Structures are given as structure tokens and as C-alpha cells.
Amino acid sequence: MTKKAFITGITGQDGSYLAELLLSKGYEVHGLIRRASTFNTSRIDHLYVDPHNPDAKLFLHYGDLSDGARLTTLLAEIKPDEVYNLAAQSHVRVSFDEPEHTGDTTGVGSMRMLEAVRLAGIDTRFYQASSSEMFGATPPPQDEDTPFYPRSPYGAAKVYSYWVTKNYREAYGMFAVNGILFNHESPRRGETFVTRKITRAAARIKAGLQDELWLGNLDSVRDWGYAAEYVEGMWRMLQADEPDDFVLATGVGLTVRDFLETTFSHIGLNWQDYVKFDERYLRPTEVDALIGDASKAEQKLGWKATVDGYGLAKLMVEADLESLGFEGKPWHDKVKLASWSVA
Ligand code: NDP
Ligand code: GDR
């Protein structure tokens, strides 16, 4: 029997890698997509097969985490074996500008998904995209037993989602798990997150297209891993015998400055010649240091990261350099442009 998966956030960084992984495992994949006035499928266009084709395995459906009735109807129709709730307003700095929207999407949106599973009366396994931002001010190393102390509307919304996921597990016996993932990046990372902002700018500087890079706090420490490896961990959490919560991390911490230094020196540049400070990129409250301990995932799921922040900086700047002819679509070398039929 072909397994069916439903992914919210399929157009995002993680959603695109997860869709690839599940398709490669023979799943039929259904994704939730927001209606927008411009195409927002660039990260998954390379997976496109015309849905009229009998070999099509990937299907998109309009919907939004703010619309609980739609989520319930969709899940009742599709009856997925696995649900991955990856959709969120995922930018921490933006969550200070849009706290209410972030609470509604990143927090209450998860509850709407859980409630949709319950109301649809389907037997499905549920993955919640929880975050190391929940640990916030609690110092590293952080693992599954570390207390939460969120430092942003985003972090607080993720704490709500974490607990409501756990509550549905305990209250309704649902196979519902939290993957507590530390920062993970890739050439598909959104351009306003610091790693991609740095690697993209470095490549453009090297190519003579840009001559400065404005950044905020360079002292914060992050544990950056590779997104393509982290979606494998998500999948493994849903294949376990019992529902449980897991940290995924590399265990290696770098400052933003370290990431800058690694990126620029890898392509023969000196970052001090280009980087300028802009206080607009500071957060009202910062998360100073996140370094994860993923021993539980290694022991129980056999999952271990192999790429750390130093490796990522090199991999990402090389990808950005390669893609300069394809501004904004760096992973598009093998892509056929598609026009999705989602209605
Ligand atoms: P992205 O920002 O790349 O993708 C977010 C996705 O959510 C997009 O597909 C976006 O759609 C969708 N989305 C946003 N709002 C809504 C909404 N109201 N209804 C439906 N869909 C919506 O995030 P990532 O792929 O990096 O992260 C995936 C998840 O994991 C997020 O929940 C994030 O908070 C969490 N996380 C991420 C980490 C990381 O380091 N990447 C670490 C820990 C947790 P659209 O394309 O239309 O904008
Ligand atoms: P983060 O990622 O907040 O950790 O959340 P981000 O890349 O935005 O920031 C990391 C660190 O870099 C500092 N920084 C800057 N950040 C941005 N975006 N832009 C800048 O110009 C800049 N200058 C310095 C920040 O202050 C911060 O300390 C990510 C998201 O993917 C979340 O969804 C996810 O939950 C967490 O990772 C784990």
C-alpha cells in the first residue's frame, strides 16, 4: 500500500527537502499551499509532474493555517498516514513586528492542525516543527530536558505548539511528536536568514555585483546543520515504535562572526572590508547561544548530523556562486519550470 503524507509548509526550505525525501521513498505526497498573487512554488517546481499523469505522486491543495475548517476537510478527504506540520511565520525578527500574526500561525495554527486530525477522525502520525528557539535564554548545551525560556513572540508561539502537541498525545492517544530542531540551512534557505544573507552577499561581492553587507549582532552563537539531513530525522521520528520528542542538532556552535569568516575566506575575501552594522537587524531580546545535544536521536533513531556550520558556510557560498546567473533560484540548475495545477 502506498503511504500518504500531508505536508504544511511544503513551499518552504524544509518542506521542499521533505517532499523530495518522501517521494524517493515511494510516498504519495500532498502539500498545503497558500494562494498568492505570484508563484510561490520555486523550491518544489523541480518535483512537478502534471497531476493528470498517472505517475503523479505530488499534489498541492490551497489552504492556510488560519482556516481550521479547510484543514479538517482536506485531512478527511486525503486521509494521510503521516502529517508534517512545517508551516509557520518562521522569522524571529519579523515576529517582533508581527506578533499577533505569528501567534496565530506559528502557535494557534498548530492547534488547528491537531484539531483537524482529531475532527477528521483519521489514524495518522503527526510531526510538529518545534524549535531550539524555545530554549531561548537557557544556556547550552540544550537537550530534551532543558527548560524553555523563549525570547521572542516566535519562540513563545513555538512553546505553545510544543505543549499542545504533547497534550493531544496524552489526551487523545495521538501519535504526535515534537522535533526540536536547531538551526538548519541549505542553498534553499530564505534570503533573509543570516547564513544565506551572508553566503549570497559574499558570492555577489566576489562577482562584483555588491560592495557591502549590513548585519546586526555578530556575537550570537548558533548550532547550524544541513536541512537535507534534518528532514531524514523528521521522517525517522514518525517511524519510531512510540511517539516521543527529539532534539536534532550538530553539537557544534559558531558565532555569526565565525560563519562570516569561514564564508568570506573560503572564496578569498576579507569580511571586514565589506560588513557594516545596522541596528535594524538587532532583536529587542536576543538568544545568545544555542548548541544542541542530539544524543537521544542518535541512540533511538540512529540519526546523526554530518555537516556542521563550517561545512555549511562553504557548501552554501559555493552554491550561491554557481547560481549567480539564476538570481534568487540557486538550486534551479536541473529545474524545469512548471505551472502548477492545484485547484
Ligand atoms: P520557511 O520559512 O522556509 O517555510 C515556511 C513555510 O510555511 C512556507 O511554505 C510558507 O508558505 C508556509 N506558511 C507560512 N505561513 C503559513 C500559513 N498561515 N498557512 C500555511 N502555510 C504557511 O521555514 P523552514 O522550512 O526553514 O522551517 C520549517 C518549519 O520548521 C517552520 O515551522 C520553522 O518555524 C521550523 N523550524 C525551522 C528551523 C530552521 O532552522 N529552518 C529550526 C527549527 C524549527 P509560503 O511559501 O507561501 O510563504
Ligand atoms: P534565528 O535565525 O533567529 O536563529 O532563527 P537568523 O538566521 O534569523 O538569526 C541568527 C542570528 O543571526 C543574528 N543576525 C542576523 N539575523 C538576520 N536574520 N539578519 C541579520 O542581518 C543578522 N545579523 C545578525 C541574529 O540576531 C541571530 O542571533 C532560525 C529560524 O529558522 C527559526 O524559524 C528557527 O526556529 C530557529 O532558527 C532555530
TrEMBL record:
Sorted UniProt keywords: Lyase, NADP
Broad enzyme group: lyase
Cofactor or coenzyme needed: NADP(+)
Source taxon at top rank: Bacteria
Keyword Ribosomal protein: no
EC number: 4.2.1.47
InterPro entries: GDP_Man_deHydtase, NAD(P)-bd_dom, NAD(P)-bd_dom_sf
A GO term for molecular function: GDP-mannose 4,6-dehydratase activity
Pfam families attached to this UniProt entry: GDP_Man_Dehyd
Keyword field contains NADP: yes
Reactions catalysed: GDP-alpha-D-mannose = GDP-4-dehydro-alpha-D-rhamnose + H2O
Domain NAD(P)-binding: 6-308
Record-linked PANTHER family: GDP-MANNOSE 4,6 DEHYDRATASE, GDP-MANNOSE 4,6-DEHYDRATASE
UniProt function note: Catalyzes the conversion of GDP-D-mannose to GDP-4-dehydro-6-deoxy-D-mannose.
Similarity comment: Belongs to the NAD(P)-dependent epimerase/dehydratase family. GDP-mannose 4,6-dehydratase subfamily.
NCBIfam families found in the cross-reference section: gmd
Name of the featured protein: GDP-mannose 4,6-dehydratase
Lineage: Bacteria, Bacillati, Actinomycetota, Actinomycetes, Micrococcales
Gene name of this polypeptide: gmd
